[in-house]
Amino acid sequence: MTIIRIVCIRIFTMLAVVLFAAAVKAEERSLYQRLGGHDAIAAVSDEFIARLAADDQEKRFFIGFSNDSKLRIRQHLVDLVCKSTGGPCVYTGRDMKTAHAGARITKADWDRSLKIFCEVLNKFKVPDKEQELAALLIPLEKDIVEKATCASHARRHRRLRAATGRRAGTARRALRAGPQWQAQKSA
Question: Which residues, given as ranges, of the chain have pLDDT below 70?
């Protein structure tokens, strides 16, 4: 009887350890899993992009892209969020600084996009615990938001002068007026 009792105790102990480990593992699900996986992330990303493209302040960033480019941007966003939340996706896009260079994204644009993102999370009824997803975006601000400096303004003026051969103020007027103004000026 003692051997049977010892074997039963060992089996019970091993079963308890396995069940405890499974319970702990269930509690340690990744944010990706808690959000609902790839399909849920894709749905949130689609809604976020649609709202950005429709927003008066943000839609200027989506002008000039072909449908193919828009699909590529969407897939990069889905992959980035998937990877950042612990999912199996691989992000193959550029780093944030390179991808957003020259877009002239201001702090106001950044804040507006975060507000829209939080609205989208609320629309999909993402629980507060899983809204740590928004916190993953905060560190990206330093790479995405362009700092307005005197040097950036000087570069812009040099580009205008190089494009038109005129001072910046005259160059802007010439570009706004079109070729007929340039023809009148040279005559």
Answer: 1-27, 148-187
> Is pTM, for the whole model, over 0.90?
no
Judge contact between 179 and 140, C-beta under 8 A.
Answer: no
In the chain, the domains with their CATH numbers are: 2-144 (1.10.490.10), 150-186 (no CATH)
Report the alpha-carbon distance of residue 146 to residue 96 in Å, rounded: 11
At 102-146, the pLDDT tens digits run 899 999 999 999 999 999 999 999 888 888 888 888 899 999 998
3-state secondary structure 15-59: HHHHHHHHHHHHHCCCHHHHHCHHHHHHHHHHHHHHHHHHCCCCH
**Rounded distance, CA 119 to CA 185, Å?**
51
- Write b or e for each residue in 10-46: b if 16 or more Cβ atoms lie within 10 A of its Cβ, otherwise e: eeeeeeeeeeeeeeeeeeeeebbebbeebeebbebbe
DSSP tag of 124 = T
The angle at the Cα of 150, spanning 171 to 106, to the nearest 5 degrees, equals 90
- What single string gives the DSSP state of each residue in 50-108? HHHHHSTTTGGGGTT--HHHHHHHHHHHHHHHHHHTT-S----S--HHHHHTTS---HH
Compute the distance between CA of residue 45 and CA of residue 37 in angstroms, rounded to an integer. 12
